[in-house]
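Researcher: Batch entry, complex prediction.
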Amino acid sequence: MASYGQSAPILEYSGEAGQLVDDPEFNLSVENSQSLIKKVLEAIPATHTSCIHSETLILNSSSENRKLQYLAINLGIPSAPTLNALTDNFTLETCLRRMSEGLQVHQDLLRAVVQRLANTESITALLTDIRDLRIQINRMLKAVQVAESPLAVQPTATSLASRLTGDYEVQVATHLTLVQLQSFGQDIVRSLRNIAQANGERD
Amino acid sequence: MASAWITMFATLLLAFVNGTKDEVHTSPSVRVHTSTPVVALGSPVTASCIIRDDCPLIKGAVWHLNHIVWHLNQRLIPSSPAAANESGRTSAAATNESGWISTVLYSVANQSGWNSTVFIPSFTDTKGYLTCCVLHTFPCQIVGAVEIRAGFPPPAPQNLSCLTNLTKPETLSCQWDPGQDTHLPTQYTLYTEIRDLPESNTYMLPPGVHHYKIPRTGFVLFSEIEIHVKAVNALGQATSTPLLLEPMESAKFDPPKVMKVQAEPNRYGCLRLSWGLSEQQAWVTTVTLEVRLKTANSKQWSEEPVPVPRLMRQRPMEVCRLLHGTEYHIQIRVRYHQSPWSEWSNSNTAVTLERAPTGRLDSWMKVSREQRQKSLSVHLFWKPSKQFRANGKILYYVVSRQRQPLKKGQLCVTLDSHCVFQLPRGARKVFLSAGNAAGTSSPTEVEVFQHRALAAVSDVNVLPHDERSLLVQWTSIHSSSVTGYVVEWRPLWKMDPSLILFDHIDRNQSSTLISESIEPYNPYGISVYPRYKDGIGLPQTVEAYSRQKAPSAAPNLRVREMLHSRIELTWEEIPLCQRNGIVQSYQIFYWDEQGNTKVVTAELEKRRVVLRELDHSSSYKAFIMVSTGGGSLNGSEVTLKTEPMDDLAIILIVISSGVGLSLLIIISVLVCFSTHERLKMCFWPKIPDPANSSIKRWTTLDSMQDIPPVEDMQESSLVYLSHLSLLDLPKKGLEKRDGEITDDPWCRCSDTSDLGESICGSPHALSPSYIGSHQHSVPYATVVFDSPYSIQPPSQSHAYLRSESTQPLLEEELEEPSSPKEYQNVPVRGTSGEQVSFRECLNDSPGRGELCILWDDFPLLRALAINDVQSET
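Model: Structure tokens for the complex:
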């Protein structure tokens, strides 16, 4: 279970050899991914506002969020994968795979809650952006992975959907998903910057 | 007839009831159908109408093949081609268009009836109804119809294009050109296939719609999507060329924002630009950017935007290679890779850092030397050369005698573009620099040339080029010592020397276009100076306008002098600022009260005109028309009144006339005195007194003594002398008898006899009254003719010889009507015109006895009569 909204800062890339991908397409995907994760992060507050009506469910309030840890476990909301700085132990492929897995987790969670929400427009748009981001991440992953292996993500949507018994649960599940997605998205931003630096991109 | 109608309605009612039972709109006993409800335009069409025997319309009726007719859109289709021909429609085209009908009797199983088939070989309507009609009664009854539609198969949609809208809700808008109208309902379907997703979408559109907005879920950002359109109608289908695009590269961004522009310390010629995409597009990390600039003084943006060579993140960027100390307005626009450019952003302004001015200043020096002074008076003008860069705001110009503008040698420091200073005669050069807040430019060396009487250019001509420029032309000087020319121009209506402008012209040129500070309708003085190696030549100056128009004001006419028949008018020159052109003429129009108009053109220089031959005491109206090269303006009308003849004038005329007359009289008197005798002879001739004279005593010599010498006569050889007794008749009497004098019977006394003449001329000789009236004596004269009197021209002058006679005139006697004398010709008055003469009384004419005068009463005349007889003999 990840600590929601307070992921540990990723260390900046230290410049180890073997992490570089000398491919313009890859660099373009990095750049596109950076755009898309930025788009997702920018959309989360508006989505939260449009979907969450409970005044106690505040997006950027860590103290309030700590009170929801029990409900999070009870609802079966999985934690996002951990993203670290690229090292020999945490390779580019691992990083990209974690990103993709984490995005899929949140896609599933949002798909589960969207069925129970009245206003689905913003969540649908958010889902679309996550889909597009995943496509870019997977494209990079495809470029770097040695052997194609299926993502180790367990289907969570059905389990969550079965637990959304009331409107409050739906609100809490949506809130927790958005909070976790925001945190995971910031991790992705750091990781992508890490990857971009690793490929020698300089602003 | 009524029964027939009733039967028909009953039949129809029955048919309706049957129809409702079978839930078929047509009667179950009638069926109309076609195998070709939709055909290509111009294709054949067939339809059939099957009427069973049990159809009430034909049941029991006497039936005939021709009882079934067809209509296409209310046009009757002939029963057969033969019938069509019979009806006069013989042309094949007409037959093809109309079609024909064939009706046959059928019998199938336990049913029988009539089957009518219509065939139209070429269906040319896009839509039509074929109606089957049974001629049971009149009119025929429609038993059923089929709709036929004709058109074309759809062409492939053309020009499929899509544009991504990144403003929420994000969409991908696609549109295409449907091509030729098919006349049939055509449905378009949009097919999309996303490369990175194993999914494809199909969007069905309502018929006739040929644009669609694909929702956000239907496309993936940064992933290619293939789109094509399929058009389908009843006759076929067609698919457009597939379009492969990446949605971001088809996005037209909103205009970006320029938040801040500023100059960074020590970044000369550069400005730092903070910018950003619009709020909804701020997530896009990198875009392609273009910058455009304009200086604060410029009205137009730079023609070519400055491309930023690499993809830009939304971070401050620097725009360099700008002019120093210059205010710039900056705008940007963005796109993603090759997507359409956004509109330009808002404009933001900043000033680049200043540096000391660079480049040289063009200068023009006018030197004048006072005769008694040892120094030179110098007027120096300058302007930036093309290479000059102010690099900031110019704060001063320095003219110095030294290259380094130290305070000691400064001649003037000014912000103007000219200054006046004194130089010692020996000075050869001065130095000119410009300064701003950042420093002073390197000095421009200006040689001091005293103006000398060097040759001037010739034929300076200035032509208007357009409203704000003038073309100056001159004939160049072919001399190696000429280094160039200076064209100087200044507005003539302002005397401010700072308005003097100049331009340096190359020696090979002989014309230049000047446009700086040239305004239409204003006069400019343009001078061309030749520049020699060792001095400046004499100028040639002309006045010019870039455009002329009629003056803004006309001069006021003033009367300068007014006499009886002439008025002198004058006027002031129009002020330069109101002249609007070069004055070409002043014309005065004036007219009297009768409207007789005259025009006088004045000399340009004098500005005065004299109106002559005016009537006294008359009123005239006049106005002035002033014309320039651009038009004319009439002045206000003035009324002029000529003076009457005043007293003084009359007195002057009288005095002058009197003096003249007096002088004439004096001269005449003097002449008279000097020729007294002659006048005396003329006016008071010496007439001999017949009473005191005797014929016998008269000798030839005596009679000839008054005759002028023979040599005085015109014809000396022949002298006619007549002793005519001329009476000093009153002028009146002479005039009365004018023309009759020569006919006077006295004058017929042409006898040369002195005696006779004397008697003839003195009828009163023996009159008793005459003796007593000596005081009324009349001088007599002898007239000397040079030819016989009868042929004397009346105008010929004659010599007069004074006669001694003092006999009173006959006329005077005649003036006394109360007592006519016996020898008087009494009836003279009563018978005017009748010639009366002294003659003998004839016995045979007793009627004239009263006029008869006896010769005995006039002894002398009697002797004359005798002489006449003798001379006649």
